[in-house]
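Kindly review these tokens for lecture notes.

. . .
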Amino acid sequence: MSIILKHVVRNIREKKFRTLILLLSIFLSTAVLFAGLSLNSVINETYSKMLQGVYGNTNIVLKKNGETPFYAPSDIMLDSVSIGQRIDQLYMNGKWKSADKDVRVSLCGMNVEQAKDAELVSPLRQLDGYGSDETMIMISQKTASDYGLNLGDAIEIEHSLGNETFTIGAISETNGIFYSETGQILLVTSLDELNRIYGMDKAVNQTLVQVPKDELDKAINTLADQNVHFTVQQTNAADTLVRDEETFQITMMLAIIIIVLISAYVISTLSKLILAERMPVIGTFRSIGFSKRMMNRVILLEFFVYGLLGSTLGVVFAYIILPYTASIFNEYKEYDVKLVTDLPLSQLTIAYLFGLLFPVGINFLRIHKANSTPLKDLILNTQHVSQQHSRITTLIGISFLGAAFILYYLNNTDHLLMAIFSVLCLFISIVLLTPRMLNGLSNLFHLFVKQTRSGNLILSTKNIANNKIVSNNSSMIIVVLLLLLMVGMVSSGIDQFLTNSFKKDFDVTVRGSEGGELEPDLIENVKSMEEVSRTYYDHVSLAEYQVNGNSETFSVHGVDDISEFDTFYSGITLLGDAETKMKEVRNGIIIDEYQLDKYDLKIGETILLQPLDDNFQPLADGFIEVVISGAMESSAFSQNRNTVLIHQEYFAQHFDGFFNQLSVKIKDEDKAEDVKEAIADQFMDTPITVMTFDEMIASQKATIDTLINGIKVIIAMGLVVGLLGISNNLLVSFSQRKKQYAVLYSVCMSRMQIIRMLFWEMFITFIAVVMISLLGGLALNKLMTKLLYAIGLRIEYQFTFELYGILCAFVFILLILSTIPVARQVFKLNMMKELRYE
């Protein structure tokens, strides 16, 4: 066994450059797999910890229902449950002017000592007398750092009842309740001080309690029964962070697939060369008594060692950079939210085993096939660069190409797996058909150049045909080029949608911070503002629709006046007599034409909708029947095209308007920020979120751009692997063609003519790659529609010749850089030595 291991180690050390490429391919695929599988769980754990941290170690939150949120602590009945801790809180909103900039402020009154025990605050330093002086407040370390504040500084807070001056008496770590500092700063004071400002006596508007974990569900039910005028919730359900988790996971999966495919192709290409070199060695071992089974184990062991080294380095590297990678996608890092990066053992095990067996799995059948060669052929084997075309391979390639388009046309409901397999079949067909297409293009080029006097040009066109090195390099370049083209088209389509297609139907939007209805007085006051030209109060909720095993989550809009809605939102276009038909049916709905085609629905058909709450859970009422009254085109309103319009009266009976919003149009678009600030100032004591249209678009675009940039980085890493693989192939090609160069030199071709031949081969290869990539890009442009629709990006995009030209220029530079080292080797080649062995 030691002899076999020494042989394997010697083989690995013998070709250092090739070993580096193999290890790098396995390293990247393992690292990307581990990071891709772990990122979503790391981010989810971080957000969950942040949400729970706002409530410390308490696990139940109580708030009063109704118009008046204030109540006395004695109004809550807690006698029937086992209470560990209780924290009564009182909140007030205001603003603080810092360096001529208005800063939103939330004042929280509570017992600080109780808050310490509940892990709501963690003071780092404080002034003497803090706790006895009611005018002293506690701020977070982040707030102190951001605004240059320190102990003893005075800040004046403006609120709806007047102004108050406070002294900073303590600075806490930025955790616990200070995790809620998103878009505002939090100041912690005493209950008595905040009651004094309000002019009330012992009033609170939120209570946190801690009960034993094993009694949590029972305690929530008991408290809800005994306190019917209060909302009783588990703390981790009281707040939600809505993130597009599905799109994130799909993007990570696409990134994994891309890098694994590139790495697999590089490993497969290099393994052909490794096996070609090992054939005489295999023959020698078998001639001294090694069985075929034993030789299979020896060669597989070599690839297993590659996997062992590459996967170990990959998981170690991925675990080291995981916190830095996750921080890129951490939307709350500016608020000092620390990442939870506990070692995810399941993801690590999957990634490590994958990397370990990756090279073995790719080459298992090839090794068995190579070892089945008769012993005489093994011993007398010589290396050839000529590639024998198999009709079976060509037929398989054509079959995969046909399968790609068959899956596309069969995928009427935009199923994700079918869309992925369709694109995957296209890439496989391109790889399988590239040698045949190169051969055909070589013959075509030869027809054009055979009348020229340039012998090296004529010879170059012949050399391209049936050349497995050129075929491998071309396939690798085409695959990477198409992947970059795919990402570029998606990025361009999203940018075009957000910039041009997505209609700016409002300038400012106002939403309740805790969901639900906005106060009528607030709506009327916003309408009466001088800068406001028009408003529309939109009732919005969610519903799920299931048909034939497929499901879709719809954004349901309750509409009072369909004409007013249609006039206000230019991003929606009603088709035909949809408006008239909807008015005739009490439970009628208008749905996007895309959804009608997708699920083969008809006007007048009755379907079932399941209303959902803000946590995407079904409401207790169950499914409701609605009638499709008409169709609309809403791509400029929402890229998902999942909008449904329904009568407001029917909406109020069956849906909870958790996502209601007041859309505001202003007379001067340049003053959107001023109107936003004016609304926030006027209703600072009301729990609302005010956002401009530009802020909303910038947030969406930033998230998507981050994901796309991540994929670009991953493809770039794959491109590096591909570049190294191409360079290795060319160097191997040089070593295999040295005798050919020597013979050409001996028949009166100068070294310069041989080098010209190499560059002509490079140029003809480039032309072939450009032509094949163009055909592949046009096919990809067609098939990608289903893939994008499947992940919710129902946008218009197109094949961009500008991007294609840039990528082709990059390929041209890549080929030149790869050819220059080979040309230098030709200059140094000892022709007589090579001829002596001929």
